Every structure is written in C-alpha cells, then in structure tokens.
Amino acid sequence: MIFNKKNVNLSNSIYQQRGSNYGLHQKDGMLINNRPDGQTGIAQAAQFKKAMKRADKISMIADGVSLGEMRSEMRESISSL
Questions:
Q1: What are phi and psi of 70, to 5 degrees?
Q2: Residue 44 CA to its chain's centroid (Å)
Q3: Is residue 57 part of a domain?
Q4: How many domains does the chain have?
Q5: Inter-residue long-range contacts of 27-32, CB under 8 Å, 24+ positions, other chains counted
Q6: d(CA 12, CA 15)
Q7: Which residues make beta-bridge pairs with 27?
C-alpha cells in the first residue's frame, strides 16, 4: 500500500507531540530516545513467562547443589566417627 504524503496526517502522532517526552529529542547535544517499547502485550507476557521459567530452573539447581553439599558434609561427619 502506497501512501500519498498529502493523505498522511502525523500531527497527532506520539512521535510528533511536544512536551510529552515521546519520540526522539535532543538534549545537551545528545539524541535522547524516549520512544515507547515496540513489544506487544503478548510478547511481553511470553518474555515474562520465559524469565519465570528460567528463575525456577536456577532455583532448582541451587537447591540441588546445597542438598549435595549437605549430604557430603553429613557423610564426612559420619565417616569421622
């Protein structure tokens, strides 16, 4: 689909609004990016679910390591008797 420049009205676009800190603006000679995140809600939910699954895996591994250390300490204390 080809848009004619006369038909496209960007005056109310979030990237054209003044004072609301949307889009790109220049401050002290640096270009500041204040554009909104481009992810959809579904993508954000998927990313959150992936992060939760990863945190659960890390927790399980940490529990396994601590359990293994406790068992080895228990074996050492029993064998020293």
A1: -65, -40
A2: 8
A3: yes
A4: 1
A5: none
A6: 8
A7: 30
Per-residue pLDDT at 13: 61
DSSP 55: H
Q: Is residue 11 part of a domain?
A: no
| pTM more than 0.70 | no
Q: Which domain holds residue 56?
A: 39-79
Q: Compute the distance between CA of residue 14 and CA of residue 41 in angstroms, rounded to an integer.
A: 19
14 contact partners, CB below 8 Å, separation of at least 6: 20, 22, 23, 36
pLDDT tens-digit series, residues 33-77: 777 777 888 999 999 999 999 999 999 999 999 999 999 999 888
Note whether 47 and 34 are within 8 A (CB): no
Tokens 């992936």 sit on residue: 50
Round to whole Å and give the CA distance between 76 and 61. Answer: 23
22 is a domain residue: no
